[in-house]
Amino acid sequence: MAQDHKIPQVTAKRLPLYYRYLEKLHLMGKQRVSSAQLSKELLIDPATIRRDFSYLGELGKKGYGYNVSYLLQFLRDFLKQDEVTNVVLIGVGNLGTALLHYNFYKNRNIKIVAAFDSNPNKFNREIDGIPVYGIDSLKEVVQLFRVEVAILTVPVHVAQEITDKLVDAGVRGILNFTPSRLTVPVGTLVHHIDLTTELQTLVYFLKNFPEDELMEQDQELENEDE
Ligand code: ATP
């Protein structure tokens, strides 16, 4: 059974990777897998894998490894992979349109059910089967589809205003692609993805640090997170 205690964020981020690979093994008819095999395929240190799984409970046997079906079912329950999460996207510009085309097709449990824009040239149509509505219909559609998660790809100056509307409509999780720091009430989660800053940081680190120093830093960051 899934444990109720909190697991480290770094572990939580790896669970979907394990899940996807186990699903593949399961489809291939494999019944067991060792941490060494998982490590080779996912490029994650075997000790890290064992530690990750140990947070979830007694999942493997020494010398046997992990039972694929059991682990898959366990992670499915843990990640609530049986439930489909309806998502909306606000701001059908270049990035928003790209994400609509992508529509997270690899994960059948996440579905963008609708998109919104304020520009009349952009709404009342479909993109890859996803309806695009005027922003005025936001609350109605969010409530109709019981949407809890939104992707924000609007210009920075309207990000907070749209966030307030989302919260008012009942959205509890926002994936924020704008550079704006959003203010939300307790109980609402914002994950911030600033692609430009991420790229700039990557370039900075590549230019300023040799490879072995970077690896040490990674390890330190991981330890801090735990
Ligand atoms: P493009 O200029 O090709 O639309 P872009 O990504 O450069 O793409 P942005 O200015 O970042 O455009 O705006 C993203 C999208 O957000 C646009 O489609 C715009 O119409 C929309 N948008 C702007 N303000 C709002 C708002 N208040 N509510 C909903 N959508 C909005």
TrEMBL record:
Cellular location(s): Cytoplasm
Keyword Transcription regulation: yes
Chief location of this protein within or outside the cell: cytoplasm
Alphabetical list of InterPro entries matching this protein: CoA-bd, NAD(P)-bd_dom_sf, Rex_bacilli-type, Rex_DNA-bd_C_dom, Tscrpt_rep_Rex, WH-like_DNA-bd_sf, WH_DNA-bd_sf
Key words of the record: Cytoplasm, DNA-binding, NAD, Repressor, Transcription, Transcription regulation
An example Gene Ontology CC term for this record: cytoplasm
Signal sequence annotation: none
Domain of life: Bacteria
All residue ranges annotated as the CoA-binding domain in the record: 80-181
Transmembrane segments: none
GO biological process, one term: negative regulation of DNA-templated transcription
Annotated DNA-binding residue span(s): 17-56
Molecular function in Gene Ontology: DNA binding; DNA-binding transcription factor activity
Chain sites annotated for binding NAD(+): 91-96
Subunit: Homodimer.
Family: Belongs to the transcriptional regulatory Rex family.
Reported function: Modulates transcription in response to changes in cellular NADH/NAD(+) redox state.
Protein name according to UniProt: Redox-sensing transcriptional repressor Rex
Gene assigned in the entry: rex
